[in-house]
């Protein structure tokens, strides 16, 4: 490692430890790299690189998917999904835990955000699980694991960022996340059933079939929204960017006109919240793009490729090592900077070893989602601990089996690429 690269890494690490906002960490590190460059590069190259980083057509879908998620969460959709899930899954062993997992799985098709799903379902379902006799820390841990399904099942904000960083097809990424997301949901439901039987957690009374029909009819428009979004992409009717606008219109139609629970004031408030979120994300994307350009200037990606290939040419071994690296990195850094800085460095190696970039994207996103429930950085963990009013120690007393279940899902997806690639290869094959 050359002296300038060492100084860049040192700057990045020191500022990160000082808890400087990640966008300014990336910009400051980029400035150090430009100043120390052996080639004469003016600082004017920094804003140019930042602009090029956000000048991606695929990123146009990001504001609309974020707005769609925010509108869905404030329009009473979560309560209707919970009512439907209770009617069909509440009588299974684990009762309300099963309901929480199912609700998060369906919410995944509307928000695409781990934190948004955790906050929305946590506020609604943690009190409900406590009232049903579940330990509140167990309720928080279940929802923390279930919220990770959100960015796997399309639409996914993380997949959009990954696509922008790697030029991988966003449509294939969306399809690739569907089966792994459902697999994770199934494993979490099995784990919840086992824990419920072992500890005697209660389940809800079985709802008669005739009483399930009206609940389904009321919830059907909500259930149709994810189908409309993904179906429009697969059928070739809309691009992912156009489908994001379809999703916004669908949520407005369902929440505002059908359920009449989404008011004009709600729309304006959520639009302002979404604008703030989009602004923060785009600033990080722009800063990360400049930082990646600096690392490319110093040949970091090529050096990593040569070093890794010198160690192993086995794709599975490489992916397992990367998984461990991601798990450690996810404990300290947010998902977006890792997707925009680390992933571009690893992509040349991924291609050199013949690994499908779409498969690698699914592995990356799931792994980083696991990091959101692990201290010291785990944002989802902190959100749910705050909602449940519990300590991290109380949370992890119940969370470690869920963490283990997520690791099993990650291992299966890593070792069996068909879990990720079968659906995109069938519906959106590479030309």
Topology:
Elements lengths: L2 H15 L4 H14 L9 H10 L6 H14 L2 H13 L5 H13 L6 H19 L3 H12 L9 H10 L3 H30 L9 H26 L5 H19 L5 H34 L2 H12 L3 H15 L5 H18 L4 H15 L7 H10 L3 H24 L2 H10 L4
Helix pairs in contact: 1-2, 2-13, 3-13, 4-12, 4-13, 5-6, 5-11, 6-7, 6-8, 6-10, 7-8, 7-18, 8-18, 8-19, 9-16, 9-17, 10-17, 10-19, 10-20, 11-12, 13-16, 14-16, 15-17, 16-17, 17-19
Question: Can you give me a brief rundown of this structure?
Answer:
By secondary structure, the protein is an all-alpha fold. Helix content is about 75%, strand content about 0%.
Please bin the fraction of helical residues: over 70%
**Would you tell me the overall average pLDDT?**
86
Structural class: mainly alpha
Number of strands: 0
Low-confidence stretches: none
Query: What characterizes the major β-sheet?
Result: none
The overall number of domains is 2
Tell me the series of helices and strands, N- to C-terminal. Answer: HHHHHHHHHHHHHHHHHHHH
What is the percentage of strand-forming residues?
under 5%
How far apart are the termini? 40 Å
SS element count, helices: 20
Coarse shape:
globular
| Radius of gyration using CA atoms only | 22 Å
Descriptive tags:
single chain, 431 residues, mainly alpha, 2 domains, 20 helices
């Amino acid at each position: 490692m050359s002296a300038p690269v060492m100084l860049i890494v040192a700057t990045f690490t020191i500022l990160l430890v000082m808890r400087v906002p990640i966008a300014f960490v990336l910009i400051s590190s980029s400035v150090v790299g430009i100043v120390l460059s052996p080639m004469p590069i003016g600082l004017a190259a920094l804003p140019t690189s930042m602009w090029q980083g956000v000048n991606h057509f695929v990123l146009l879908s990001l504001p609309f998917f974020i707005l769609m998620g925010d509108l869905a969460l404030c329009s009473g959709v979560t309560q209707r999904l919970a009512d439907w899930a209770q009617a069909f899954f509440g009588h299974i062993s684990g009762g309300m835990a099963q309901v929480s997992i199912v609700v998060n799985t369906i919410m995944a098709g509307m928000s695409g955000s781990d934190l948004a799903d955790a906050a929305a379902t946590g506020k609604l379902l943690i009190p409900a699980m406590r009232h049903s006799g579940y330990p509140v820390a167990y309720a928080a841990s279940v929802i923390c694991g279930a919220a990770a399904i959100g960015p796997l099942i399309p639409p996914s904000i993380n997949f959009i960022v990954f696509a922008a960083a790697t030029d991988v097809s966003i449509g294939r990424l969306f399809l690739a996340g569907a089966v792994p997301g459902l697999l994770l949901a199934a494993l979490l439901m099995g784990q919840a059933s086992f824990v419920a039987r072992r500890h005697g957690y209660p389940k809800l009374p079985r709802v008669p079939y005739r009483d399930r029909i009206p609940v389904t009819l009321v919830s059907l428009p909500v259930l149709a929204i994810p189908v409309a979004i993904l179906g429009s992409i697969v059928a070739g009717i809309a691009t992912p960017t156009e489908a994001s606008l379809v999703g916004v219109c669908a949520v407005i139609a369902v929440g505002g006109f059908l359920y009449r629970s989404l008011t004009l004031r709600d729309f304006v408030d959520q639009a302002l919240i979404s604008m703030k979120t989009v602004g923060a994300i785009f600033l990080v994307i722009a800063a990360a793009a400049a930082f990646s350009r600096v690392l490319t200037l110093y040949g970091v990606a090529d050096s990593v490729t040569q070093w890794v290939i010198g160690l192993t040419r086995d794709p599975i071994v490489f992916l397992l090592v990367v998984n461990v690296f991601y798990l450690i990195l996810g404990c300290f850094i947010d998902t977006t900077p890792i997707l925009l800085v680390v992933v571009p460095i690893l992509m040349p190696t991924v291609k050199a070893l013949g690994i499908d970039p779409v498969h690698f994207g699914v592995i990356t996103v799931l792994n980083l989602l696991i990091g959101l429930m692990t201290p010291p950085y785990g944002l989802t963990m902190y959100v749910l601990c705050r909602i449940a009013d519990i300590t991290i120690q109380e949370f992890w007393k119940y969370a470690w089996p869920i963490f283990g279940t997520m690791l099993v899902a990650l291992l299966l997806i890593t070792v069996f690429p068909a879990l990720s690639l079968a659906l995109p290869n069938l519906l959106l094959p590479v030309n």
